[in-house]
């Protein structure tokens, strides 16, 4: 695994006006040295982290040598959302999780990039929660992101998302086994009835009376409990509710029109969490005022999690974006 690096941020004022005297920002880099190649920022999802490539990399099918996001050509940077616990330092966990917003996270990431002397990036890409942070990053610095690539996400929290965040928060604060129980509910948001029914077909687990679907869900709960912290789960879940790039800024078209880079919205046709209809409406509303906005859709039975499953489709969507940059480089060279 690539070594975790740390940036110390001091006297950071949150969106709600509260002051954080110190925030440690942990990150990992992959591929080419910083400053020597185009930069790609990868934002992790709710239970993810900065380890996007290499040993135990959660996006190895997309990021790496000779992959779509080619580490032989690009510099890849992935930050950990502060408080996600990936640094394994209990002192860096956040208890006052409702003080933070996605906008705070995006500002923190830009602070980190500024520290690294990176003023603009070839792409910001992320799925789910990470894609929401990507939207906010592009709005904060509309001239600094050449390609905004939000996947299986949205620029705002819909009522459906807010409702499910509340359910998750209630489970996390009231269950006797909060991480595992919250994960049971979450997994059914991330998949579809068709995916679950096709996979398990009402079969029992070995010779027991337990259904395979029950065993599968229980194992997901146990696995997450073994690698995730309760305070991290509460924070990441809460952040989803705070997603809104128009808050205190004006209407959507005015806000997004300032973004100069290409916008590639990638949805999943069966996503029951960030529904594709919302993404289609976003793109259709932007087309009259922006020529460089594009809609892509992953076709999958698996629902929201398809962005972590349907790698071949995702690679086909991403290939023209990243290969064009490489081709331009080789032609000019």
Question: What's the gist of this structure?
Answer:
This protein is α/β, with parallel strands linked by helices and about 325 residues long. Helix content is about 40%, strand content about 20%.
Structural overview:
This protein has two domains: 5-158 and 243-332, Alpha/Beta hydrolase fold, catalytic domain (Rossmann fold); 160-237, Rna Polymerase Sigma Factor, Chain: A (Orthogonal Bundle). Helix content is 39%, strand content 18%. The chain contains ten helices and ten strands. The protein has helices spanning 102-115, 129-140, 159-174, 178-190, 193-200, 212-227, 230-241, 252-257, 276-286, 311-332, and strands spanning 5-13, 19-31, 39-43, 63-64, 69-70, 75-79, 123-127, 147-151, 262-268, 293-298. Helix 2 links the parallel strand 7 and strand 8 (147-151). Helix 1 crosses helix 2 (129-140) and helix 4 (178-190) packs across helix 6. The protein is globular and about 60 Å long.
Task: Explain the layout of strands and helices.
Blueprint: E1 5-13, E2 19-31, E3 39-43, E4 63-64, E5 69-70, E6 75-79, H1 102-115, E7 123-127, H2 129-140, E8 147-151, H3 159-174, H4 178-190, H5 193-200, H6 212-227, H7 230-241, H8 252-257, E9 262-268, H9 276-286, E10 293-298, H10 311-332
Parallel strand pairs: 3-6, 3-7, 4-5, 7-8, 8-9, 9-10
Antiparallel strand pairs: 1-2, 2-6
Helix pairs in contact: 1-2, 3-4, 3-7, 4-6
């Amino acid at each position: 695994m690539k070594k975790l690096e740390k940036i110390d941020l001091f006297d950071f004022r949150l969106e709600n006006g509260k002051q954080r005297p110190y925030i440690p920002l942990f990150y990992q880099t992959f591929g080419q040295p910083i400053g020597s190649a185009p930069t790609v920022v990868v934002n992790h999802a709710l239970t993810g982290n900065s380890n996007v490539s290499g040993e135990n990399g959660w996006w190895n099918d997309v990021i790496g040598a000779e992959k779509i996001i080619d580490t032989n050509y690009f510099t890849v940077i992935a930050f950990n959302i502060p408080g996600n616990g990936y640094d394994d330092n209990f002192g860096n966990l956040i208890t006052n999780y409702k003080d933070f917003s996605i906008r705070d996270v995006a500002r923190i990431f830009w602070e980190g990039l500024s520290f690294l002397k990176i003023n603009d990036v070839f792409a910001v890409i992320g799925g789910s929660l990470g894609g929401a942070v990507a939207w906010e990053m592009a709005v904060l610095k509309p001239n600094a992101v050449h390609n905004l690539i939000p996947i299986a996400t949205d620029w705002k929290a819909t009522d459906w998302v807010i409702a499910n965040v509340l359910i998750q928060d209630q489970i996390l604060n009231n269950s006797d086994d909060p991480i595992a129980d919250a994960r049971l509910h979450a997994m059914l948001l991330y998949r579809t009835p068709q995916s679950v029914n096709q996979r398990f077909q009402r079969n029992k687990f070995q010779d027991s009376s337990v259904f395979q679907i029950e065993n599968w869900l229980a194992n997901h709960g146990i696995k997450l409990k073994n690698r995730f912290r309760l305070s991290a789960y509460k924070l990441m879940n809460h952040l989803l509710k705070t997603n809104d790039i128009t808050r205190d800024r004006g209407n959507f078209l005015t806000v997004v029109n300032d973004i100069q880079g290409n916008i590639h919205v990638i949805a999943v046709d069966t996503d029951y969490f960030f529904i594709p209809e919302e993404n289609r409406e976003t793109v259709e509303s932007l087309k009259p005022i922006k020529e460089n906005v594009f809609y892509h859709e992953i076709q999958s039975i698996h629902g929201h999690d398809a962005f972590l499953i349907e790698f071949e489709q995702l690679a086909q969507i991403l290939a023209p974006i990243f290969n064009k940059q490489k081709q331009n480089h080789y032609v000019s060279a």
